[in-house]
Amino acid sequence: MTRVLYPGSFDPIHNGHLELIEVAADLWDEVVVAVVGNPGKGSGLFSLDERLDLVRASTEHLANVTATMHSTLVVDLAREVGADFLVKGLRAVSDFESELQQAQMNHAISGVHTVFLPSATAHSFVASKLVREIARFGGDIASTVPAPVAAALAARFAPDEEVTA
Q1: Which entry of 25, 129, 139, 143 is 20 to 30 Å from 152 by CA?
Q2: What is the pTM of this model?
């Protein structure tokens, strides 16, 4: 049985992430999605617990996918969950440059290999940062995120109700 680990900040999970998870679920026996705290990205829009809940709600249709949370080295989590590989998505050449360096470092310190999966053209432009920005200003992000995420973003950015006297 082959188990892979797909780590990311998922703030929030979007359809590009979900596509990669679905492809991984077709290719391997088990997929563990890890919501990873990234100190370089700040605290984020959603807490780690909220992100984990959104990942779980967005992947509940996939029987061989589980989700967890981690805040140390990804390779330590890979070892802990018994992952055979790390899985990373690529949207553009710029992703490859940074992901390749991470993959090489991860392999050097742990022996864990990384498998790269390209995103579909339909989702290659979607990024969590853009989704957050559009949602913050009331834009329609429904086609770029799973339904649970669209609801969470709508609730997060709902206009405050005016108090009338």
Answers
A1: 25
A2: 0.91
Q: Which two tokens stand for residue 91?
A: 């949207």
User: Residue 55: in which H helix or E strand, if any?
Assistant: helix 48-59
Q: Which of 14, 17, 70, 88 is catalytic?
A: 17
CATH number assigned to the domain comprising residue 149: 3.40.50.620
Q: Among the options 70, 91, 123, 132, which is catalytic?
A: 91
Number of domains in the chain: 1
Catalytic residue among 51, 88, 119, 128: 128
In the annotation, is 107 catalytic? no
Measured distance CA(138)–CA(146) in Å, rounded: 17
Q: What is the pLDDT of residues 66-112, one digit of tens each?
A: 999 998 899 999 999 999 999 999 988 888 988 999 999 999 999 99
129 noted as active-site residue: no
Termini Cα distance of the chain:
64
Whether 94 is a known active-site residue: answer no
